[in-house]
Structure formats: structure tokens, C-alpha cells
Amino acid sequence: MGKFVIEGGKSLKGEVQVGGAKNSVLKLMAASLLAETPSVIRNVPKIRDVFIMKEVLEHLGAFVDFQDHELFIKPSINNFETPYELVSLMRASIIVLGPLVGRFGKARVARPGGCNIGRRKINLHLKGLSQLGVEIRLDRGYIEATAKKIKGGRVFLEFPSVGATENLIMAAVLAKGETVVIDNAAREPEIVDLCNFLQSMGADIEGVGESILVIRGVDCLSGVEYSAIPDRIEAGTFLLAGAITGGEVYVSNANPGHLELFLMKLEEAGLEIEKKEKGILVRSKGYTNSIDVATFPYPGFPTDLQPQIVALLSLAEGISVVTENIFENRFLYVDELNRLGANIEVKSNRAIINGVKELYGAPTMAPDLRGGAALILASLAARGSSEVLNVTHIDRGYESIEEKLRRLGAQIERVEFKEEEAWANETTT
Ligand code: EPZ
Predict the structure, then answer these.
(1) According to the model, what pLDDT value does residue 427 have?
(2) Which residues are the active-site residues?
(3) Whole-angstrom Cα distance, residue 379 to residue 314?
């Protein structure tokens, strides 16, 4: 357990390199189970969720070695159950359901609970799989999935769910002789990365990056060497760190094509943006315009950058409205931002942000991963000293965030807690 201690008010300047995309790498790890032979995945961030997914794969019998941002995975699967204690650590573990059913015709995965940002249902995953001939039984908190053979057919997703799209793709790629069409599929860059990974393993997928995917099942897949795409959410977070502190930051190893709408909104907010081949520069002009933002499935504004842009807009001139259309409870961090002097009101799925002239340092508690990132950004801009507690949330999705920020001139230190002291800081839920 730990906290970040931040001395705010410094403009961040310089270059920072982002790592591999958390929300791609976790799925590539699951997809490696579909192959008969080992895979190597590169550009893997050293973050908590990757270590948990490593444990999930090892529990299933795979051999996983993780050194220097590179994973070696031998898919020697001999167990088909993912226990609740692992799924409760990371709900994304549900993504092994598709590959296990696709390659072995069976899986027993604990139903993931909700999390702080919402219920995180999986009804679309289960409905889609059953339309492909998978028999789904709910048994004392576990999903029992069995399929003699994955059936071809068309699945129309009532919502372009990222996880449901991924599970369906991975269930379908080994359905030899069958064709599966996924309509209204999610189009996130992480889905494109998963499809590219599967195609390099020998899968037959048409329409990659589009909302209609056509998957023709093949007999078997082979392990490959593959490098994950950069993390667009980490890139956006560091661009906002430069923006909110009135600085100038170049994020290298970032793909501007993955953040088109986000960058448009930053320009609308008065920031200068320069897009390079493999990087993005943000330069503050010393002020921030108030703007309205609404989150939508890709290529819409990414929900995973919603808390962070709200932090920026808390210092904008005028009133901004940010609408969260993806998750039902993704404003938990707002009360914490208001402790720093922000003036934000949440009504239903909207945050009404009355821009203030300045924020001042105070202790805050990270309620979830991206809310925690928003509190770090606000603390960097606040006058005086701040603390952000519950950094375990933040370590799930950001590798050494404090070291990267220090390289940009931030005054931020990580202070570890002893267990009993940590307990005293737990929010009473
Ligand atoms: C992925 O979650 C990401 N996580 C999330 O990032 C991201 O916010 C989300 O996609 C949207 O882009 C990973 O990739 C590990 P969804 P996922 O299925 O797959 C509802 C972060 O901060 N829904 O598109 O769970 C669901 O409740 C995390 O890195 C159903 O109702 O997202 C949610 O409200 C947070 N039924 C909405 O759809 C279903 O069967 C979006 O969910 C599935 C989803």
C-alpha cells in the first residue's frame, strides 16, 4: 500500500516514452492459449494487471516467463478453471473464456463482480457465445461453458462491447469450416491489435478495424513473436500532465491515429498539438478554454481519458460539461477533485465543471485506476503539497508513473505504508 506525495505548481517539460497498451496486452496473453506452440509478446508494460494475467495463465497450466517487458508463453493448458480469487483481482480475466472454449470446447470461469466504475456486466459475452453453440450454465458464481463445436452464424451485439467482441473473436477463430460474423463489433485499436496478432498466428479475419468482422475458422494456430501497440490512454494521460501544468511535453512511441478525437478536443481547449510519425507534442498557451466532452465507443472520445480531462477542465475559463456514456459510475473521483478546490457538480451521467482560477494542495484518495490518474494530474497543478492515497489502483495501469513524471520536472515521491497504517487509510465503504 502506498501514496504519492506531490509538490504542485511546476510546469512539466520534456519527453516521455509510453509503454505497451494494457488493454491490448492482457488480450494477447489470453489469445496465446489458442496456439499449439509458444508465443513471445514484446512491449509489455510492467504493471500489476499483467502479473495477475500471468498468474491466471499459469493456473491454467501455461508456462509464462516475463523479463524486460517481454513475455514468453508456452500454452501447455491442462486446467480449464479460473478461480474466483484470481478473477476478483482482475475482472478482465474473463477474457480467457473465449480462447478456452474456442480451442478446448470447455471453460469454468468465475463470474467477475462489478468494480468501482460500474456493474461491468457480461451478458453480451454470454449471449453471443450461446449464439455460436456454446452451452452456458451458471453454477454457484461460476460460468460453465461447453461446446462440442463452435457453430457459424451472425452475432449482432446490441452494444459494441470491447470484451464481448474479443471473447467472440477468440471463440470463433478455430471453428474449422464455420464462418462467424460479428456485427456492431467494437473497433478500438486494441481490438485491431488482437486481430493482427491472431492473423499472424494463422487466423482468417476480415474487416479488421471495422464494425462488421467475418471470421472463417481454421484448423490450428501457431505461436508467434509480436509487439503490442503503445498505450493510447497512458499517452493521453501524459499529454494532459503537460497541459494542466501549463508546460510542453512530447510523448514518444505514441500513435496519434489512436487519439484523433481526443487531440481535437485538446486543441478546442486551447492547447497546441503537433502530431509526429511516432509521437505527439502538447504545448500550453497558458490558458484552457471550457469545452464539452461526451464519451463514446471508439472512435469516439475514450471513457478511459474522461477523469483526466475533467481534471484539466477544472481549471478552464468558464463552464464545461462532460458526459459519461459508457460506465454508470465513473465520477467517484469528482468529490476528491473538489477537495483540491475544484467546483464540479455531478448530475446523473454529467459532470458540470465551473472552472476555477487555481487548485490548492490537499490529501485525496484514488477510487479507481483512471480516477487516480486524474487526482495526480490535479495535484501536479495545485499550489502546495498534496498526497494521493491508494496508489495500488494506479499501479494497475501505469508503469512507474512517478519516475516518468519526475523526468518531466514533477516533484513526486512514492511513500510506502505499512499494512496497519494502510488499513487506517482505507475508505469506509
Ligand atoms: C474495456 O473494458 C477496457 N478494459 C476498459 O478499460 C475500457 O474502459 C472499456 O473497454 C471501454 O473502452 C480492458 O480492456 C481490460 P465494454 P470492457 O465491454 O471490455 C457494458 C481501464 O481503465 N457491458 O466495452 O469491460 C459495461 O457494463 C479500463 O483501462 C454490458 O452491459 O468494456 C460497460 O458499461 C476501465 N454487457 C460498457 O458496456 C456486456 O456483456 C462497456 O463495456 C459487456 C459490457
Answers:
(1) 46
(2) 115
(3) 12
What is the model's pLDDT at position 423?
Answer: 54
Strand, helix or coil for residue 56 = helix
**Å from CA of 304 to ligand 1 middle:** 10
Instruction: Report the C-alpha gap between 58 and 358 in whole angstroms.
Output: 49
Amino acid at residue number 47: I
Residue 327 beta carbon below 6 angstroms from any ligand 1 atom = yes
Q: Do domains 2-19+230-428 and 22-217 have the same CATH topology?
A: yes
Residue spans of the chain under pLDDT 70? 114, 419-429
Question: What is the residue whose three cell numbers read 501505469?
Answer: 398
Structural domain spans, the chain: 2-19+230-428, 22-217
How far is it, in rounded angstroms, from Cα 25 to Cα 233? 13
d(CA 242, CA 240): 5
Does ligand 1 lie within 6 Å of residue 163's CB atom?
A: yes
Class of the CATH domain delimited by 22-217: alpha beta
CA distances from residue 3 to 14, 336, 388 in whole angstroms, order as listed: 25, 15, 5
For position 390, what pLDDT does the model report?
94
CATH number of 2-19+230-428: 3.40.50.300, 3.65.10.10, 1.10.8.100, 3.40.630.30? 3.65.10.10
Residue 334's CB: how many other CB atoms inside 10 A? 22
Q: Which atom of ligand 1 is nearest to the CA of 303?
A: 8
Are the beta carbons of 77 and 49 closer than 8 angstroms? Answer: no
Strand, coil or helix: 143:
strand
Q: Which pLDDT score is estimated for 420?
A: 59
Q: How many residues does the chain have?
A: 429
| CB of residue 397 inside a 6 A radius of ligand 1 | yes
So what's the pLDDT on residue 429? 38
Looking at the whole model, is its pTM more than 0.85? yes
